[in-house]
Amino acid sequence: MPSEHFPLNKLFKPSPSLVTWFRVDFLIAIFCLVAFLYLPVGVFGEVPSWASPAVLGAAALAVILFFVWVGMYYDSMWYELRDDEMNWKRGVWFRRTGIVPYNRITNLDLVQGPVMRALGISTLSIQTAGYSGQATPEIRIEAIEHAEELRELVRTLVRGHSGGDGTGTGAQVPPSATATTDIQVLEELKKIRLLLEKGR
Q1: Which H or E run includes 178?
Q2: Concatenated DSSP letters for 16-58?
Q3: Which range (28-32, 34-38, 79-83, 170-174) has the least confidence?
Q4: What one-character DSSP code corresponds to residue 132?
Q5: Does the structure show a pLDDT above 70 at 83?
Q6: What is the DSSP letter of 161?
Q7: Do the bridges between strand 85-90 and strand 11-12 make them parallel or antiparallel, or are there none, so unpaired?
Q8: For 113-141, how does the pLDDT look when each residue is reduced to its tens digit (9 = 90+)?
Q9: How far apart, in whole angstroms, are the C-alpha atoms of residue 9 and residue 81?
Q10: H or E segment to which residue 155 belongs
Q11: Can you tell me whether residue 81 is helix, strand or coil?
Q12: Is the separation of the CB atoms in 185 and 178 below 8 Å?
């Protein structure tokens, strides 16, 4: 399962367009916030003399700090596809690293907003068995070019390790794992029953 853009056992980074994407989205958010603050004042009355410089100064400072942070965040990010698991790392002040075995992956979703579409990038959202009920995925491979190729590669790796299809619809659990889980559940139920009987 060779991949031209995502070789196994080799670190890769998001597209540099991630920096542009984050900055454009942040500028849109700041513009909307400032417009939300000033629109009612402009309609119903005059802007206080202190408000305009303070708000615009705070917005400018937030933009500068965010622009610096995004560059540092991009530099901190990397991903790696290994033979049996996926590794990732990111974070400026709080570093996060993770390992996701392919046999735990249940869902692979591509996400692409309007700014991302203009930049030719997508985000691959990956959910695992433990995170399937969560609103957010366990890992997001952000700002990826050739995202369809990456998703197909990960699907192939998932199929090779779990017998599933990487979409959450065909994942199969080995019989031995099911039996072990059943035994553990039974033991826990026995303990709960004993505690309930003691409480009577």
Answers
A1: helix 175-199
A2: THHHHHHHHHHHHHHHHHHHHHHHHHHHHSPPPTTHHHHHHHH
A3: 170-174
A4: T
A5: yes
A6: H
A7: unpaired
A8: 999 999 999 999 998 876 555 556 778 99
A9: 6
A10: helix 147-162
A11: strand
A12: no
Q: How far apart are the first and last CA of the chain?
A: 61
- Cα separation, 27 vs 139, in Å, equals 25
Q: Could you read off the pLDDT of 134-177 as tens digits, one per residue?
A: 556 778 999 999 999 999 999 999 998 865 455 544 444 454 44
Residue 80 · residue 88 · CB < 8 Å: yes
pTM summary value: 0.70
The rounded distance, in Å, linking the Cα atoms of 93 and 2 is: 35
Enumerate the domain spans of the chain: 11-162
Distance CA 86, CA 150 (A): 12
Residue 11 backbone dihedrals phi, psi, to 5 degrees = -65, 140
Which are the contacts of 160, defined by CB distance < 8 A and separation ≥ 6? 1, 102
Of 73, 79, 98, 77, the closest CA to residue 11 belongs to 79
Can you read off the two tokens belonging to residue 159?
Answer: 């199929």
Query: pLDDT at position 119, please?
Result: 96
Is-contact 183 121, C-beta < 8 A? no
**Those residues with Cβ within 8 angstroms of residue 119's Cβ, 6 or more apart along the chain or in another chain:** 15, 17, 20, 21, 143
Name every residue whose Cβ is closer than 8 Å to that of residue 54 and which is 6 or more positions away in sequence: none
